[in-house]
Amino acid sequence: MANVTLRDVRKTYPSGFEAIKGIGIEVGDGQFCVLVGPSGCGKSTLLRMVAGLETLTGGEIDIGGRIVNQVEPAERDIAMVFQNYALYPHMSVYNNMAYGLRNRGMAKPEIDTRVQEAARILEIGPMLERKPGQLSGGQRQRVAMGRAIVRQPKVFLFDEPLSNLDAKLRIAMRVEIRKLQRRLGTTSIYVTHDQLEAMTLADILVVMNGGQVEQIGNPLHIYQKPATTFVASFIGAPPMNLMPLGSDEITSQLEAVSGEAGILGIRPEDFLISNEAVPGGIALELTVEAIERVGAETFIYGARRHDKGGLAVRPGELPPGEVIVRIPGAVAPAIGERIRAIAPREKLHLFSADGRRRIEF
Amino acid sequence: MVEHRRFGNLLPHLILLAGVAIVAFPVYLAVIASTHDNTVIANGQMPLYPGTHGLETYWNTIVSGTGRTTRAPVGGMMLNSLIMALGIAFGKIAISIISAYAIVFFSFPFRMAAFWTIFITLMLPVEVRIFPTYKITSDLSMLDSYAGLILPLIASATATLLFRQFFMTVPKELVEASKIDGAGPIRFFFDTLLPLSVTNIAALFVILFIYGWNQYLWPLLITTRDDMQTIVIGIKKIIDVHDALTEWQVAMATAVLAMLPPVAVVVLMQRLFVKGLIETEK
After folding, report:
1. Which of A23, A229, B31, B199 has the highest CB neighbour count under 10 A?
2. Residues of the domain holding B162
3. Residue B261 reports pLDDT greater than 50
């Protein structure tokens, strides 16, 4: 049980590459913190720095009131679950879990109690004598978790633990990890690039990009009030529609908006297909270009008429002029049809022209 | 691709059988010759079926030596060869696995320089550096000793490279998991790396044992005493006798005996050997 505090943590490689550009995060006792971001954003590096597998070139890491910058990984009282599980291939499941305890000189009966308890929680009791090579991906994942649990550490660190599993198992394990963490009450830091995993697991969500924190907070708050266009398009699937404000239909509909605002964002599910007037809101004339039906909901890809582009397309963002509208059910307009999508004023998001700042209005 | 061609399969098999016969016939001849009396062999009329003097010849060869010549019993030579081959095989494995461990898992100044230095020694087998090596061995008064037979042959770039290649396929996370589990470098080496290398070690052992067993030039140079001779040199000495008839049946028995340990090693370790060369799963 411990708080984990990162203060202005920095990592610059000898080549001069700045992987982490000054990050401060506070994870309270028993909280589940998720680091999310695209690949190469530094989230895994940051986690490995907490684990002690990477050195810091600036700042402090504090685990349970102790600065651990110079402390060996084994002495930090952390346990880590790796993406490829990193089980010892030549040891039985039992020994995989017991190894770390034996190295610490724990008494045999105590080791046995802990391993049996972990095996019971994770339902891997019948597999204790098997080797990792004889287990399925999901079972290996459980053993990796077991190896972390038996240590009863202050902090669990997860490095994309579910990305090697198939989609169904991933959802099942996701729920299980959350339940387990609640039950054990152990402070956890979890790295993922999957925004859905991030949203569902996190008490505290940290959205990272390019070695920096874009936004920290409660996942729902981040979803509802993204601080930058990066967060807006990264969190939520399909991503938020971002439209540049210029001299076109959108701008003329938005009165009394500060001149700083350069980008308008609307989430696909906040649209309504309707001919009603929306005082203060936005109405868009769209030509339907594509339709995706997934059963409970339907995504409509529409093109706006007057858009000249002008907004750079980053990965995960929509091409300029394309708007996604999400409607419930499977009844949708035909391709080529003209529709009118409206969004009320309170569902609009405004950002500065560089996308780095949210503007309240 | 499954085709039933009764005669189509016959030709490849005949070719293969012919190949086996060509390889095996001299070995068969050696075994047969070692069971006949020397006079039968010497007059050039040796039959292709086994003779009746087998036990007697092998007893003479291994244990007693022969009165007419100064030939030492082959039993002692086999022991010498065994000690040398085992010493070379285990020594090479021990040194190369440690140096590969250093090169792959530790970052220290001039790591690549160290690697290339080891690599370059591939160009310097014993035959090339034989005079300086002899001088050093002699200065250290290791002539006519097991240490002299083994130590100069013990450093191995090949084995180091093989272990390096294998170590580089060990996932980095395994090292990190060990670190978090509180295992230092020595624990990681013995608890994780060594057990993972077992099949590789076995494969290398087979190759290196045979390499050591077959050494000829180096033992010939540095052993002068009869009781330090290896069996490979023994064969040569038995054939080259002066003022007497070569004891062909003894020479053949010695040759057969010299073949047995390498064959035994290959047979016993065949399964591990193949696994070590093809296994990919970690």
Report:
1. A229
2. 84-230+262-278
3. yes
